[in-house]
Write a structure and sequence with these properties.
The chain is an alpha/beta fold and 378 residues long. It contains 15 helices and 13 strands. The strands form three sheets. The protein has a six-stranded parallel beta sheet with strand order 10-9-8-11-12-13, with helices on both faces. Strands 4-5-6-7 form a four-stranded parallel beta sheet, with helices on both faces.
Length: 378
């Protein structure tokens, strides 16, 4: 498996996905090697997880590459991935699995080098992240890489029907398959009795499409409606300065804390204390944060968009609101924080959704079926 991010380095939901899938495959008896990228240069080059997954990390700290040269840095990291893979003695994969455009070059090269099929999972697309349009410059280059990856791979996996439509409309895939995302409830479940506070929690990569600015608007509407209400938004990203400006403009800097990066143990603590988790995304191909919130048994409010809607619609596991509608979001937050019965019903429904649809063992079985078809069709 090839991925830009793998724990403890995590930018978005891809790290959790690859970690969960790789671990389940290893527990089922398969030999799994994950190649990832060490952007900070402070992680060991070779490690093994508790599930027996071997992790190999490539460096990207080449001094002559520009700080904003994402495509150049990605290409450099892919070259190093290939070199590391070729240097593993007595190792020959049966299949190469690339996650998103960040590992397209390495995936295609290793597939050719070892004569094995290439499977690609698309967690999002550049076109989708920009509302159906491909921006000039780096955005256009990334879109071209995505189209090339869809063409070169034997099978393309999407985590939601929303993402399948996005691929079919924008990238002309050759053999697209649906395998949902997952979560390990044991990682997120509360340990004993928890006390919920009038705290609203949101987290993730801080980009415009994540909709945190809508949450800031909703908090302005909630002032005085819920006693003691406050909000924590955890995460880093390029939109953080604009989000801080939005918080200031809305006059809620005393209510909203932009916490930056929060380690997993601290995030779990926040989840177990939060009276309401909010996922305000304007664009969300799947929404792993929704599964993590449900696993933590946190009452949740989510935007009715993309993969989020597919997870929640018809389950009563969370409250839904129209993306970008701050008034609807504020009303949903107020209901969750003030109606204990409603919150309890959400928690019960959430446990059933996770058990029946989103376990990693079930997802690994579905992914193996895609692998076997790719190997047989090659």
């Amino acid at each position: 498996m090839l991925t830009r991010e793998f724990p403890p380095a995590s930018i978005g939901g891809v790290a959790a996905h690859v970690d969960g899938l790789a671990g389940a495959l290893a527990r089922a008896g398969h030999d799994v090697v994950v190649f990832s990228i060490d952007t900070d240069g402070d992680l060991p080059a070779h490690t093994t997880t508790t599930d027996g997954v071997r992790v190999v990390r490539a460096r990207t700290d080449l001094p002559w590459l520009p700080d904003d040269g994402e495509v150049l840095r990605t290409a450099s990291a892919n070259n190093q991935m290939v070199a590391l893979a070729a240097g593993l003695a007595d190792w020959h994969p049966d299949l190469v699995h690339a996650h998103d455009w960040h590992t397209a070059w390495a995936g295609d090269t290793l597939s050719t080098l070892f004569g094995t099929p290439l499977v690609a999972t698309f967690h999002s697309t550049e076109r989708g992240r920009h509302g159906g349009h491909v921006p000039e410059g780096a955005g256009s280059a990334i879109n071209a890489v995505e189209a090339w990856l869809a063409y070169r791979s034997t099978a393309q996996i999407c985590c939601s029907r929303f993402m399948m439509r996005e691929l079919l409309e924008g990238l002309d895939p050759t053999n697209v398959e649906l395998v949902p995302n997952g979560v390990d409830p044991r990682v997120w479940a509360p340990d004993g009795t928890v006390t919920r506070e009038p705290m609203v929690l949101a987290w993730g990569r801080v980009q415009y499409e994540k909709g945190f600015q809508v949450l800031a608007q909703a908090m302005a509407l909630l002032r005085g409606r819920v006693p003691g209400i406050r909000c924590v938004i955890a995460g880093r990203g390029s939109y953080l300065p604009e989000l801080q400006s939005q918080v200031d403009i809305e006059g809620v800097s005393d209510l909203v804390n932009l916490a930056g990066y929060v380690p997993d143990d601290e995030l779990r603590s926040l989840l177990h204390r939060a009276g309401c988790v909010v996922i305000p995304s304007l664009y969300e191909p799947f929404g792993i944060v929704a599964l993590e919130a449900l696993a933590a048994e946190a009452p949740t409010v989510a935007a009715r968009t993309g993969g989020l809607a597919e997870i929640i619609e018809g389950t009563d596991a969370a409250a839904l609101f129209e993306p970008g509608n701050a008034r609807q979001l504020a009303s949903a937050i107020e209901r969750v924080l003030t109606d204990g019965t409603s919150a309890h019903d959400m928690q019960k429904a959430g446990r059933e959704v996770l058990r029946s649809r989103f376990s990693w063992d079930a997802i690994a079985t579905s992914t193996l079926a895609v692998y076997e078809r790719a190997i047989n069709d090659r």
